[in-house]
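User: Before I run my own analysis I want an independent prediction to cross-check against. Here's the chain; please return only the structure tokens and, at the end, one sentence I can use as a sanity check.
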Amino acid sequence: MKNPQLHPYLNMQCSLHDVFPTLTFDRVEAPDMSVGSTFFGTDPVHENLETAQHRLDLFQQQHSNGLIANGYLEARSFYNTDRYQRSTSNGKEYRNIHLGTDFWVPARTPLHSPLPGKVVISHNNDIHKDYGPLVVLEHRWNEHLFYTLYGHLSEDSLANAPIGKQIEKGTQIGWIGAAAENGDWVPHLHFQILTHLLGNTENYPGTAYPSELDHWMELCPNPDLLFKEHLPQGPAVRLAPSWS
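Assistant: Structure tokens:
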């Protein structure tokens, strides 16, 4: 049971059915994609999209009434690449701790806002293994100001959600993007809660270095706080060292 005193977001009682009203599901299922997982076979950096899609399709078939969602604070091999590394006095550190929840749903799935808000970022981060089209909404809840981030969308989502547009609860933001437009990923939504934009106007970190995790957990609370349904983490939460 979630404690309503734990965080103000818990009082909103949003539903995942508000986000994906065209999908039919009665529970959330979370595959393990963390470091050391064999979910994607011999392709832990998620470059063979055909194989990755096949693995996800099999998992969906095994959980036909489930919404596939996972990833908050999951240490992932996806990001153990040159693009996500830095050199330190201790060696290489990878920015590989995932700060949002991924919803693995088909391309062109309509995406709706669970809350009223305003579009403050609408930009195509067209770089390999980046967000592709990204939309961020600003929300006000009593005295609280926060943001929700929607990554890996379709290109036409940006025209549907331009900066400054007022969004009512249930308004369609856009669509989930295909691999050719979403940053080269198997289709999915990266969803993240932000407490501060940090001056960003086009992009926002979706992963953290392990050595900075406490800071980023303050900025990016668990998306589970927002929804009536539980977003399971289970054994996938594995803050493995990323030094090499």
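Sanity check: Confidence is low (pLDDT under 50) at residues 234-244.
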